[in-house]
Design a protein that fits this description.
about 170 residues, disordered C terminus
């Protein structure tokens, strides 16, 4: 069946944003995604709708090839503020790594995603708005996660062993 989507009015955008935020908090990211897409039809560069849509997509990550990480990244790259582009791109990498971690991917394959997330958070920290330490909080969470998972420690130790073994005697 084919349907023609109906268009919301510009005046309805603030209430639609509130509903999208509510659906995300209720763990219904598909509903939030649909609302954000309706907003973006009316205002294609609406910054909050772009951010919420990217987050709603990352809320749906399950750790496999169906994750739409490229789509979320493209949305975050449309954010005007450099801090927001960096912070939300970092969040994308962190959420992608965590989703893959939940499905049992080996830590060594996740380390680059966490490293990229932490790089984005560190860059965002350098230009963060006053009274906003979100990038520090996310960086610390990644660091704690990496420190607490024995798989990351084993990989680090085996890398060190390989370096020692490869040196001439």
């Amino acid at each position: 069946m084919e349907f023609t989507l109906k268009t919301i009015s510009k005046a309805a955008i603030p209430e639609a944003i509130s509903k999208a935020e509510l659906y995300r908090s209720l763990n219904e990211p598909e509903e939030a995604e649909s609302i954000c897409r309706d907003i973006l039809i009316v205002e294609p560069e609406h910054q909050l709708a772009l951010r919420l849509l990217g987050l709603a997509i990352t809320d749906q990550f399950c750790g496999d090839a169906s994750d739409r990480h490229r789509e979320a990244e493209e949305l975050f790259q449309r954010l005007v503020e450099r801090y927001e582009r960096l912070y939300y791109t970092g969040l994308l990498h962190e959420r992608r790594a965590k989703a893959q971690m939940r499905v049992g991917r080996p830590p060594h394959s996740l380390a680059p995603l966490f490293a990229e997330a932490m790089r984005c958070f560190a860059e965002a920290e350098m230009i963060h708005p006053p009274d906003n330490d979100d990038a520090i909080l996310r960086w610390n969470r990644c660091a704690r996660l990496l420190q607490s998972d024995p798989g990351f420690h084993e990989e680090k130790e085996s890398d060190a062993f390989d370096v020692i073994d490869s040196s001439p005697i």
